[in-house]
Specification:
The protein is rod-shaped, with a radius of gyration of 26 Å. The protein folds into three domains: 29 residues; 46 residues; 31 residues, no CATH class. A five-stranded antiparallel β-sheet has the order 4-3-2-1-5, with helices on one face. Strand 3 and strand 4 form a beta hairpin. It contains two helices and five strands. By secondary structure, the protein is an alpha+beta fold. This is Preprotein translocase subunit YajC. Belongs to the YajC family. It is found in: Cell membrane. It is a single-pass membrane protein.
């Protein structure tokens, strides 16, 4: 191989090495950590699924996990659907409602009341231009 061919192949090799260290290697590491977390699930652990559902592990089968999402309500999930184990500081506090969760705007009014006030008592769907 002469220097001209090496000079044209070198950027391609460099690109492959950069992709490996920036994309492939970190993704493989995250997959291994997720698999390790899913295999170490035990009953009583508080978890969040990949869809955002919080629950407590009741039982672990081969590839399934049974979660209790509310008192007396149990659902069966695949282990791969468990996104992370939640520590007590991570979960949102259910005793303190947040203004947007309670349907309140910044003035403390219900969002529907605030919409009527801004629209001059007209429904936004019937508002004429």
């Amino acid at each position: 191989m002469d220097m001209g061919q090496l000079g044209s192949i070198l950027p391609l090799i460099l690109l492959v090495v950069v992709f490996y260290f920036l994309l492939i290697r970190p993704q493989r590491k995250r997959q291994q950590e997720a698999a390790q977390m899913q295999n170490s699930l035990t009953p009583g652990a508080r978890v969040m699924t990949t869809t955002g559902l919080f629950g407590t592990v009741v039982a672990v089968d081969n590839e399934d996990v049974i979660l209790e999402v509310a008192p007396g309500i149990e659902t069966r999930w695949v282990k791969a659907a468990i996104g992370r184990v939640v520590t007590p500081g991570d979960a949102p506090v259910a005793d303190e409602p947040v203004a947007h969760e309670a349907g309140l705007d910044e003035d403390g009014k219900k969002e529907s009341e605030a919409t009527v006030d801004r629209n001059g008592d007209q429904d936004s769907s019937t508002k004429q231009s």
